[in-house]
Inverse folding.
């Protein structure tokens, strides 16, 4: 760990100015990812700009959905009655993540920017294309038990976002509000926010230098109200998903009117499956349909030496999640 | 009376006859209040400096140079030490002379920072000392090490690995064969082969390894260290530093777990002493969590194959055990799994072998139930398979093969209550309601299974000294250089001293964890409770004998002029055996004769070196009954219910019962906690614990508590623990067998057996993660 400076910003402008003045500075919210990276000598920012007092807060009902300030904590949002009622999958994704201590600290914005748990990325002694472009990816022929099987490249096969919340937000068409250093805001649908590794695994999202995620908008929908988040992992708590599924169904008279499917733990980024949704939409809400949807979702999976099990596991996870919602 | 920075005890329940009772931990309050000073917390030392170890990125290679230009510029840096400038040690375990002198006090014979060679990833290559931890960390990060890397060997499974049969070292201590196991197996009507694989496991105690070295003079050092074995660490340090024993003091007042990782001394401890001397200030070193995966040993990755031959009725005819495991470039260590295979059941033919492969890893070491934990997995899964094969209940097959005598030595057991463990466990678990068919109990998406397994652990020979000073005001100071892992040594010894002296536990002050105190056994191999309690009990008897002599010589005493043999001490009273009304409290005597305090000392023996009271009678029968002619083991039975999700592959333990017979139980609460802890350790090993080395670079890929999974609360159901009361006169003066190890032995097998009952597939590659369960279930479809 290196020496670093710390400054507290009381306004967004002040934060932007601090960022302008110090190349390499980073924003600090809950710090649950950042401090880990600094302790492991994976990040050495000269300045931490504390944005915890910035006013990007609140969980409000808007005319067509919810607006969540990104400085809210995971635990606050996960337990919020509006979130529980309108977006059960989002609430569950938050409360099944990490540990109580981490959920109390970690911000929503920080959650969306968490880094991979890949053991090669997390240990500076290994080569890693994400950390040092061009240095190589030992996971390709190494310990890839928990790596991704969808959307990977020969440069990087990790689940770049290993968490849960973004999977649920992706399923329910959330939109992120980003604010740049000049105070100008733009809206980016979350399905356009994350970048697949391709030849540039070090580029993980479309956030520009100094830009902040200030709010998340989630549109209300029947399929969001009838939703669930299922997470399968190697221990019951405080573990990342081997596979997870955020699903929502609007079923009327046994027929699926609309469906949302996103997978975690298997994609190089949180993985929405239009193919599965297409199978589901208009079909009867039964196990055969769900199995067809699961096959469609994993159709293009590319497993490596140790993680072929994830195909079957992700399919079964998806079927179970769909059954859970359909039978609720 | 408190010469060192010791805890003050609180929360004592006051009553007599406290042995066995659930006395609240006497050090609990100090720990909860933050008053307990752990080894890394002696921050009062003047000018305490901080050391940070820089470790090797690569697993094999040669250091070609260091660039310390940036590191040196960090303010407060006091020294950057490498093999090029670290003052040499007087002795190291790498030489044959050093190895002889240090013996078992160090598990790893390799001493880092003595050459440019790199043998394992995580090997210390430099140590940076600075005025603050932050400066030391920063400088260590900036220090550049140039290395020529070579291709490492990763494990016994590596295509580069060369298997060999060890002829010396721990891995050569295979139990003696009996009969002709190969022939008996070939001719057996029922033959069964079970191959088990075990991932590397790491101890991961909450408290990392930590050392503070304080040179009080040029030739005198006090080392505050996280050790489970004061005497071993003391010895290793004075030999390596070339000092007289009296000039080295080792202090360990509290430990935050160890599980074997702190049983022998590792290089970082002596490195801290070396650099403290070099910079002329006390130095603190705390290993980081990632460093804990490459600094204090591990349970080696291994494969064991057990071939079992039996009659059609299920009676054992042959046991053949083979183990293959990874060891370091220098040492022949393998935990001896075949010990328990050798003794758990009556079987006329037995043979075992061990093969090792050298790889670029550090030396592996003792980890809770070393040998017995994985060994019991093989034999207890195999017995389960045999039960199904011959159509017997898992308990019935075990009763059929029950060893009434030690099958290896033919000696009678000093005590054995395994049958009672089965019986009580079955009753508590409701085993009688078990469906004998496997794969037959479905609840929704889950299959439910019930499994059980036996456990056993030997009574290892040990001895230890204790000192008891009884004061005329009715309190006592009790001393022994024991350690308390957090499991309750402070408390149980307080209880034993209280009863032995006839005083309340709050009047006992037990001091441990200091090499200046009487030497005693390590907290390892389940030795501490039996050894320390016995020596304290005997030291109290020494006090009484001295007081009886004084009493019979005092004309004001009610026992004046009695023969010593006619006087006894009961609950703090010295009285005539024949007439208990003729007596007085020791306080009355001591105050009357003006004796402020009186000291007793004793050596307590544990195991075969203990001579039972019968043996000292010196009659032929007594000799026959003596300890040396008994086999001594604790026994246990574990019962487990699992739910296996057949689509998701997840396994949840939903019920658990452990019944343990381990001699006298000194504290029912701390004993229960020990057993729960051991069971959780075994459940973790069965279902989730495993460290992964990259198959090319031989470096761990999950060296963190987030990625190396140990059980969380949500993985563990309500646990039922029961003890079978045993009186064992042959093991030690207190009849105590120890609980640390027997509480884990058999537990992983109970989980695997429950999974087998649930899904009808035998899973023997640990940990049993969802991918393996799904793979097994695919065979059914």
């Amino acid at each position: 760990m290196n020496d670093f400076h710390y400054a507290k910003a009381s306004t967004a402008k002040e934060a932007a100015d601090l960022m302008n003045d110090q190349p390499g500075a980073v924003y600090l919210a809950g710090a649950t990812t950042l401090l880990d990276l600094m302790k492991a000598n994976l990040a050495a920012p000269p300045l931490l700009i504390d944005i915890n007092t910035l006013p990007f807060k609140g969980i409000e009902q808007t005319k067509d959905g919810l607006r969540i300030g990104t400085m809210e904590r995971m635990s606050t949002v996960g337990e919020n009655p509006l979130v529980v009622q309108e977006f059960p999958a989002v609430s569950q994704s938050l409360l099944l993540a990490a540990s109580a201590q981490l959920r109390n600290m970690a911000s929503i914005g920080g959650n969306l920017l968490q880094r991979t748990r890949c053991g090669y990325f997390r240990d500076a002694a290994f080569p890693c294309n994400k950390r040092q472009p061009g240095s190589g990816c030992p996971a390709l022929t190494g310990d890839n038990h928990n790596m991704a099987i969808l959307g990977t490249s020969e440069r990087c096969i990790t689940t770049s976002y290993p968490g849960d919340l973004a999977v649920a937000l992706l399923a329910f068409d959330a939109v992120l509000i980003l604010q740049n250093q000049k105070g100008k805001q733009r809206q980016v649908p979350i399905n356009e926010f994350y970048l697949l590794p391709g030849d540039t695994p070090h580029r993980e999202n479309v956030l520009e230098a100094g830009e902040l995620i200030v709010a998340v908008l989630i549109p209300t929908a029947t399929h969001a109200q009838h939703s669930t988040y299922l997470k399968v992992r190697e221990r019951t708590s405080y573990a990342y998903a081997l596979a997870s599924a955020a699903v929502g169904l609007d079923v009327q008279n046994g027929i699926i009117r609309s469906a949302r499917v996103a997978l975690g733990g298997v994609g190089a980024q949180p993985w929405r499956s239009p193919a599965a949704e297409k199978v589901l939409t208009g079909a009867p809400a039964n196990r055969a349909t769900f199995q067809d949807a699961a096959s469609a979702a994993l159709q293009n999976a590319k497993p490596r030496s140790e993680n072929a099990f994830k195909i079957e596991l992700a399919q079964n996870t998806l079927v179970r999640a769909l059954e859970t919602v359909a039978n609720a | 009376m408190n010469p060192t920075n010791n805890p003050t005890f609180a929360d004592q329940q006051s009553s007599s006859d406290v042995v066995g009772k659930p006395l609240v931990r006497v050090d609990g309050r100090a720990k909860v209040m933050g008053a307990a000073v752990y080894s890394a917390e002696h921050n009062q030392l003047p000018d305490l400096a901080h050391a940070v170890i820089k470790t090797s990125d690569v697993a094999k290679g040669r250091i070609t140079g260091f660039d310390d230009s940036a590191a040196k510029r960090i303010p407060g840096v006091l020294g950057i030490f490498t093999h090029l400038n670290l003052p040499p040690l007087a002795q190291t375990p790498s030489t044959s002379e050093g190895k002889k002198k240090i013996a078992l006090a160090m598990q790893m014979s390799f001493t880092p920072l003595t050459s440019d060679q790199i043998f394992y990833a995580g090997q210390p290559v430099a140590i940076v000392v600075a005025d603050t931890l932050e400066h030391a960390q920063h400088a260590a990060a900036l220090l550049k090490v140039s290395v020529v890397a070579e291709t490492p060997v990763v494990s016994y499974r590596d295509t580069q690995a060369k298997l060999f049969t060890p002829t010396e070292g721990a891995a050569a201590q295979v139990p003696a064969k009996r009969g002709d196991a190969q022939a008996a197996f070939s001719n057996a009507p029922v033959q069964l082969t079970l191959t088990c694989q075990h991932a590397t496991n790491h101890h991961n105690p909450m408290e990392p390894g930590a050392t503070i070295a304080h040179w009080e003079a040029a030739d005198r050092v006090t080392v505050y260290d996280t050790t489970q074995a004061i005497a071993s660490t003391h010895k290793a340090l004075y030999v390596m530093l070339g000092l007289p024993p009296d000039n080295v003091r080792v202090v360990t007042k509290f430990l935050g777990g160890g599980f074997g990782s702190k049983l022998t001394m590792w290089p970082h401890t002596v490195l801290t002493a070396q650099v403290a001397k070099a910079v002329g200030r006390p130095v603190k070193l705390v290993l980081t969590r990632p460093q804990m995966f490459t600094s204090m040993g591990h349970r080696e990755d291994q494969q064991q194959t057990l071939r079992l031959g039996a009659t059609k009725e299920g009676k054992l005819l042959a046991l053949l055990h083979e183990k293959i495991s990874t060891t370091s470039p220098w040492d022949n260590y393998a935990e001896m799994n075949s010990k328990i295979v050798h003794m758990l059941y009556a079987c006329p033919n037995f043979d075992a072998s061990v093969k090792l492969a050298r790889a670029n890893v550090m030396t592996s070491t003792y980890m809770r139930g070393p040998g017995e934990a994985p060994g019991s997995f093989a034999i207890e899964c195999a017995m389960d398979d045999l039960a199904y094969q011959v159509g017997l209940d898992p308990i019935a097959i075990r009763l059929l093969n029950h060893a009434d005598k030690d099958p290896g030595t033919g000696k009678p057991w000093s005590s054995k209550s395994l049958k009672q463990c089965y019986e009580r466990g079955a009753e508590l678990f409701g085993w009688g309601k078990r469906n004998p068919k496997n794969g037959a109990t479905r609840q929704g998406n889950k299959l439910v299974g019930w499994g059980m397994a036996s456990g056993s652990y030997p009574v290892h020979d040990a001895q230890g000294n204790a000192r008891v000073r009884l004061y005329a005001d009715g309190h006592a100071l009790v001393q022994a250089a024991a350690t308390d892992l957090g499991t309750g040594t402070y408390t149980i010894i307080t209880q034993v001293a209280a009863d032995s002296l006839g005083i309340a536990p709050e009047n006992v002050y037990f001091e441990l964890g200091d090499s200046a105190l009487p030497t005693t056994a390590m907290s390892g191999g389940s030795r501490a409770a039996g050894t320390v309690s016995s020596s304290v009990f005997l030291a109290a008897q020494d006090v009484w004998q001295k007081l009886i002599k004084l009493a019979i010589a005092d004309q004001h005493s009610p026992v004046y002029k009695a023969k010593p043999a006619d006087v006894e001490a009961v609950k703090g009273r010295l009285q005539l055996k024949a007439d208990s009304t003729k007596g007085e409290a020791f306080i009355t005597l001591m105050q009357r004769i003006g004796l402020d305090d009186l000291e007793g000392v004793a050596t307590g023996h544990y195991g075969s070196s203990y001579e039972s009271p019968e043996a000292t009678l010196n009659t032929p029968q007594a000799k026959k009954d003596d300890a040396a002619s008994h086999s001594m083991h604790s026994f246990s039975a574990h019962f487990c219910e699992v739910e296996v999700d057949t689509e998701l592959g997840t396994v949840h333990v939903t019920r658990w019962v452990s019944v343990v017979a381990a001699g006298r139980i000194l504290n029912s609460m701390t004993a229960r906690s020990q057993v729960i802890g051991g069971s959780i350790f075994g459940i973790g090993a069965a279902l989730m614990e495993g460290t992964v080395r990259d198959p090319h670079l031989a470096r761990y890929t999950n060296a963190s508590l987030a990625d190396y999974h140990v059980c969380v609360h949500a993985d563990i159901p309500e646990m039922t623990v029961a003890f079978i009361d045993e009186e064992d006169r042959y093991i030690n003066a207190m009849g105590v067998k120890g609980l640390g190890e027997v509480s884990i032995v058999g537990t992983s097998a109970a989980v695997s057996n429950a999974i087998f009952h649930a899904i009808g597939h035998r899973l023997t590659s640990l940990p049993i993660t969802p991918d393996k369960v799904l793979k097994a279930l695919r065979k059914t479809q």
User: Anything to note?
Assistant: Chain A is about 30% helix and 20% strand. The first helix of chain A runs from residue 12 to 21. The interface with chain B takes residues 1-3, 39-41, 44, 117, 119-120, 122-126, 138, 141-143, 145, 232, 234-239, 242, 309, 312-313, 316-317, 319-320 of chain A (CB under 8 Å). The two ends of chain A are 49 Å apart (CA to CA).
